[in-house]
Amino acid sequence: MIRINLLPVKAAQKKEQLRNQLVVIAIAFIVVVAGCVLMQMSIQSDINRVKAEITKNKAEIRSLQKKIGEVNKFKALQEELKNKLAVLDSLKKAKSGPVHLMDDLISALPENLWVTDLKEKSSKITLKGVGLSEDDVADFMTNLDASRYYRNVRLKVTKQKTSGGLRFQHFELLCEIEQPSSDVKK
User: Fold this and answer.
1) Which of 18, 84, 117, 163 could cross-link 128 (Cys pair, CB 3.0–4.6 Å)?
2) What is the pTM of this model?
3) What are phi and psi of 123, to 5 degrees?
4) 3 phi and psi angles, rounded to 5 deg
5) Which residues pair with 166 in a beta bridge?
6) Cα separations (Å) of 53 from 47, 58, 63, 64, 65?
7) How far is the C-alpha of 173 from the C-alpha of 152, rounded, in Å?
8) Does the residue 21 lie in any domain?
């Protein structure tokens, strides 16, 4: 019988298989490394893009904060201006108010009646005076009550005094001041 030694062929086949496996492993390793490098480059690109966005957003925030500061300054100036306008309006009212009060007071005075004292305190007026009769005092009260600037006219005191053969009616009135809405200008 003839014997054939197949061992060197098996050893050669094993070497060939080992070499093929090493080539496959090397190719797989290269593919994995290339994949990792590509992933790392992609991630780094994303990181750089996000960092650029963050820088851009921070610059925009600083710009907007400057604008907000300017807006707040304008709001403060606007509020200050409103306050100044309110003061001017109140000064205009205070300026014209006494003129109208005195004008209506003079218009309301009957012929035989004189005002001797006028005191104003916190939108209330106390009037003292002398009239020839009680009717003159009543007419004065009615005229004042019809005025646009006087309201709630009340008689506090009335006394009759005689001087030089004439009888005089001394009186004291309380009333409130009212600023008519038609005089308010906006």
Assistant:
1) 117
2) 0.47
3) 60, 25
4) -110, 135
5) 163
6) 10, 8, 15, 16, 18
7) 10
8) no
